[in-house]
Amino acid sequence: MQEPTTKRGWLHLATFVTAAASAASAVFWLLGGATGSALIANPSDFQSTPAASSVPNALSLAQSLGASSSAPLAEPAPSQASRLRLLGVVAGSSDDKPGFALVSVDGGAPKTYAVGAKVTDRWVLQSVQRRSATLGADAKGAALVTLELPKTSSP
Fold first, then answer.
1. Which of 17, 70, 101, 140 holds its CA 20 to 30 A away from the CA of 108?
2. Which residues have a Cβ under 8 Å from the Cβ of 80 and sit 6 or more positions away?
3. pLDDT tens digit string along 67-95?
4. Distance CA 89, CA 147 (A)
5. What is the domain range of residue 124?
């Protein structure tokens, strides 16, 4: 009967050592032992100012991830036509039935537009053909953009 008490004693000792090691590890990390700086911050660090934003500055974020300190080159804004994607067309058979185009704007949900309808504040759907649609500033003006359906691979 001596043996079960001894086994239980080792179990208690192992549990105590594990709990002590966990507590010591937590204290070490909370006090910033690995980096030398405390994680417990000054309460004034959490006060927000009206100019503070929850969105980080892109340059400071890039620098914190290891980018060089020089400012990145600005990318050109996408052209208005690159915002549009033609997904389908229904060509009309006559002037009475001019046709429709299925267009996605800015990667959003596609919408159906009739010929003559405004697709965006700048573009009007002028006409539809078998695999394309033309857009311009107004319904009767010059065609400024031609959108084409994506090529499909034939089996």
1. 140
2. 120, 122, 123, 145
3. 765 554 444 444 666 788 888 888 777 66
4. 11
5. 81-148
